[in-house]
Amino acid sequence: MWKGSGQAEKAGGALLLVGAALVGLFYLNRVFTPWPLYAGDEGAYLIRALFGDLLSVQPDRHPTVHPVGNTIYVLLIQAVDALSANLLPWLRLIGLAAYLGGLVLLHRALAACAPRPIALWGLAVALAYPFHRFVVTAMPEGLFVLVLAIIVAAGARWALNRPWMLAALGGGSCAVLVLIKPHGVVIIPAMGLLLAALVALGQRSVGAAVSQGALFALTFLVCGAAVQALAGRGETAFTFFLGSAYADHFGRVPLAPLRTAAVTLLSLGSATLLMAGAPLLGGGRTLAARWRSREAPTADEIAFLLLAGALLATLAMIMLFAVKVSAIPGESDRLWGRYFEFYTPLLWIAAAGPVAALWRQGGLAARVWLAALPAAGLAGLLLAWTLGVTLLPWDSAAISAFYLPHLERWNFSPSVPYVWISGAVVAILCLALGLGQAPLRAWTAALVALGLVSTHYDHSWVSTSVAGPRNALGRDLAAAVALAPSDSVPGLIADDHNASHTAFLTYEGRVRILIRPLMAGDALAPFQQVATVGGPPLPAPWKMVYGGEVLTLYQRQEPP
Q1: With 5 labelled, which of 235, 236, 382, 448 sits at a CA distance of 20 to 30 A?
Q2: Could you tell me the pTM of the whole model?
């Protein structure tokens, strides 16, 4: 990062390696966490994978677990569960390996597009980006990035010389991506953008582009339908891409849609500008030059176009989702970073060469732009915080380094002023860029620093708000399961999805979940035994038979 003596550069490099190693070791250790950290989402995937057949016959066992359209990820969970008794650690390792593999794969596919040192620094920026929180989980993020990288790498390699192969395999791969996570539909407009760009640059006739788009669509539908049919989901064979898990949200009517849209646009745009402004500027500049020359795009330009198109489509989708979900109390003014942050490391890989070229060739103006983009992004985020946007640890990765407490929204007030530390990191970054430091090196250093801050935030949240209650619940559930009747299914009353999902998994499906507030009438009539997580004591005829730290177990007492 620094101009100066060799000793200073070595010292700076050593600090970077130490910081990156600390972050890496922290998340590697999380592989062995005994319970799902994001129990709401992770629990839904695990429950649908492990007990989907049971719930299809007896949906009242857990009526509030939301459906998932992640067929391929569900199949992966089932496969790992069949092969190993250590389900959670293996899912986390697979997610981490897939994520890192996706970054390295894209780097290797584009390595020839830039001098080797530049390409390696682009990979360094990508690896330093702290998205690890969501890939070391039982969630599909890591696998999603791997398949996304495969599609982008294939587009970069084959768009010009093997277009029909790209159309066929790209459509099938896109179907796989959608069935890993429904957000993969954004590849469809991204591929359409690529075909339109190739027509505009004279690299494809309109007829050929339309035919290849049709082949892409055909293989997309056929492959997706085949997977759904083989997985026993034939009823959704040709509608697999509609995202059924989010269907309920699109029918909601928000109270202040314009205000929500404006605040969401501000927070999403600012976060994108802060973390990905430089690669978007560098890549956009090369595409503009390509447009003027009407020459064939290079592999990294094609990769950048696909990623930028997918990112823009994703941001638009998040906008719509954020507006609709704001109709739910407490769900407004959230920055849904998990849905788009992973594009940032991929963009840095694809645009490493253009960013370096901008810095070398652009002079003072380039320095100003490279420094101004993160500064503007930071200013926008700070404005968003003043408008009430809250950074929840289950929503964002790197962006969570800028956490500012809003205690009326979420009662978490750490002793460390994260937003001011991270703001200082960005300020130093902007100063370094303005003084002419190489952007790839400067950004690697900044992201390692932000990774340390966001990791400390992650640790503080887990250690103060999650680990204790989750461990206590695990101990209580183990006792409750040991006392469960063999001749009937007990009930369990919980306040939220985290507790209910954890309980259902611990009982291995032999329980019926009820969420407060309970339905009208005698909701407990079918049960001989009921467990409660929190809440008031149960009145007669219920007698407490176990009182734990967070769970209480009751047995029905028949009158004499």
Answers
A1: 448
A2: 0.94
